[in-house]
Amino acid sequence: MAKICKIYDVLIIGAGAAGLFLAANLRVKSVAVPEKNATPGKKILASGGGRCNVTNRRIDTSNYLGDANFVTNILKNLDFKDVLKFFGELKFNEQKQNQFFCESGAKDVLGVLLKRARQSGAQIFCGVCVKGARKILADENGEILDASLAKEAKFDSKNLQDFKSEQTELFEVLAENGDKFYARNLVVASGGLSYKKLGASGIGYEIAQSFGTSVTTPAPALVGFTVQKDEFWFKNLSGVCFPAEISVACANKNAANRESNMPRKFAGDILFTHKGISGPAVLNASLFWQKGLIAINFCPNFNIETAQKSKKQLSTVLPLPRRFTLEFLRAAGLSDKPYGEYKADEAAKISRLFAYEFAPAGTFGFERAEVTKGGVDTDALDANCCHKDTRGLYFIGEVLNVTGMLGGYNLHFAFACAANLAKRLNAE
C-alpha cells in the first residue's frame, strides 16, 4: 500500500543562519526544515567567539568576494538596522570594526531565530541528513507519475488540491535514513565545508550539480596560513600577537571595477602559531589569497628614521614584541645592536620588516576555517536566489560562491538572502 505523504509549501535544507532566518520570515502554509545535526544552529553558537556578531554598520559589496552585481542586489534590501530590529529583544554592543555583538551571547541569538521560526509554523527535523533531491510529477489523484516511484507514495488529495494543477511539479528530498520529503519550493541553505565538527556538508553543491549548475571548487577561507621552510621561524613565536598590515593580490574576475582587482591591504592583529600565522588580518587576507606571495608590514606605523637616530638596540627601539624582533634578527643571521651599526646589506635585511614577502605553503584547512569560499555559481540564479532553469529551486547563504570578510558580513549576507527570498515566497 502506498504511503500517504504530506506536501510542504517550502522545504529548507539546513537550520543555520540563512535557513532559520528564512523560516522565521515566511508566512506560507507549511514549512519543513531538515537539519543534519542533532540540534540546530551549531555554527551560530560558535560565531563571534560565542557572542555572535550578527551584522556590521559598514555593510558594503567591497567586503565580499563574489559577483559584485549579485552581492549588491542581495544586500540592498536589508540594512544593518533591519537585522538589529529583528533581534530587537536582545541587546548588542558595537565594537571593533563596527561589529554588533550580542551582550548575552550567541545562544540567545539562536533562541530568537528558533522562536520566530516556530511562531511562523516551521517544523524543524533534526538528525535528518539529506542525501539528494530531484523534481517529480504527481497527477490530480495524488499519484506519483514517475514509474520508479509509483508504489512508494500517495499524496493527501486535499493537500494536493492546494497546488491547483492536473500535473503538479514537486521536489522530492531523500534522507540517508530513507525518509522522503515533498515540497513545491526547495531552498538549499546547507552552508559550506568549514568546521566539519559542526556538521558541515557538501550536499548543497551536489544538489546544485544534479540540476546542472556549476560549482566553484570550495576552499577554506578566513583561515590561518601554514608556512614553507624559509618561514619556519614563525613557529618559534607561537603565541606572539601584535598589529600589522598585510597586502595580498586580489584577482577577482567578478569584481565590478578595476579598483577591486588591485592589491588589498588588511590591518589588524597577526598571531603566530605552532602551524604558521593567523589573526584577524591574516584571516581576511586568506579570503582573497589565490596562491603566490603576500606581504606583511610588521611596523606599519613606524618610521625607520627613529631607529637611525637612536643609540639603543634595535629590539628596544622597534614598537614590536622583543621576542619577535630577536627571532626575526636570528632568522636573518643578524645580531641585536643599534641600527647605525648595521652595514648596508644588513640594513637591507632589516627593511624587510616593512614589506616581508613570502608565499604561504597553504592554509590550516577546512577544520580551522571560519567559512568556505567558492560554491554554487551565482550566474545560475536571479536576484532572489532562484535557479533560473528550475522553478521553485533556491540557494541561499554560504552555499553560494559569495564570501564576506570578518566582522558580521557573512551572517548579514545569509540574513539578506533569506529576507529577499521570504518576500518573494510570501507574495506567491
Automatic annotation (TrEMBL):
It holds the Pfam family HI0933_like. Residues 220-371 form the RsdA/BaiN/AoA(So)-like insert domain. The chain crosses the membrane at residues 7-26. The keyword Membrane applies. Residues 9-134, 158-420 form the RsdA/BaiN/AoA(So)-like Rossmann fold-like domain. InterPro entries: BaiN-like, BaiN-like_dom_sf, FAD/NAD-bd_sf, RsdA/BaiN/AoA(So)-like_dom, RsdA/BaiN/AoA(So)_Rossmann. Keywords: FAD, Flavoprotein, Membrane, Transmembrane, Transmembrane helix. The keyword Membrane applies. Its cofactor is FAD. NCBIfam families: aminoacetone oxidase family FAD-binding enzyme. This is Pyridine nucleotide-disulfide oxidoreductase.
